[in-house]
Amino acid sequence: MPTMPEEQQPQRIEGDSLVFLLVGLDAESAPDTGVGDTEVAAEGEPAAWEAGAARSDTMMLLQIPADRSAATIVSLPRDSWVEVPGHGSAKLNAAYSWGGPALMVETVQNLTDLRIDHLAVIDWAGFRQLTDAVGGVRVDGERLDGRDALDYVRERKGLPEGDLDRNRRQQHFLRSLLEQTLSSDTLSSPTRLNGLLNAVGDVVSVDDGLSNSDIRDLAWGLRGLDDGEVRFMNAPVVGTETIGGQSVVILDGEAAEPLWKAMKEDAVAELVERGEAPEDLGEEVA
């Protein structure tokens, strides 16, 4: 999956920390494309991204420090009112629809001043398939299969804080999945790790710069990770407004600046120690 030419990327900070943009699409996508087009080109080449085929329903930033001792996941509300290059102010989730992976990455990089090293995209069908492939995920004592899990993470209208509560649900689900994966020693067992990576590879599209061996090496490097070392946060918000007849989320740029700086400089642990990190959202859900 192509994203942005190297010369258009923000300058890389020295070190081996990584920032991923994780995107969930609100459409059924063709295999290996991350877009709604159902045609796949000959000889296994993915179909080209098609404007308007899908919007991003979920967006998270994943930062992994150089020593692979922790991970930080920051949710970006889909209704965030942001500047989309070439289109003016709009909801964040429109960027993928208008310009595909490249515009999505550019928009988030402009918003956060972070260099996005890699992109991973999954759609509804892939999410259901992956959940079923790991045997379902236990959330609050109930094991959810793929269909129930999708309903759980996509619920919004019936929740008191709408988009923000949905972020909490998504993080709660992801925390449960990580606990399940880490408690079973999947990352430290070559056989189990291969099974997990095969399941992920079947349904997740990644950028051209991330090879299968890169993914395997990264997963193996995280084998000592404990679920308590995975931090869940939300991009700070001011509140919600109605703009042009649509409800939007207004981000708090000033409050977010220390977080983006810490992620950029591989200093999230220090930010947390100082008590300056945004709230942990993965525990309490509506």
UniProtKB/TrEMBL annotation:
Residues 55-140, 143-181 form the Cell envelope-related transcriptional attenuator domain. InterPro entries: LytR/CpsA/Psr_CW_biosynth, LytR_CpsA_psr. Gene3D superfamilies: LCP protein (3.40.630.190). It comes from the Bacteria. Belongs to the LytR/CpsA/Psr (LCP) family. This is LCP family protein. It comes from Streptomyces lonarensis. The lineage of its organism: Bacteria, Bacillati, Actinomycetota, Actinomycetes, Kitasatosporales.
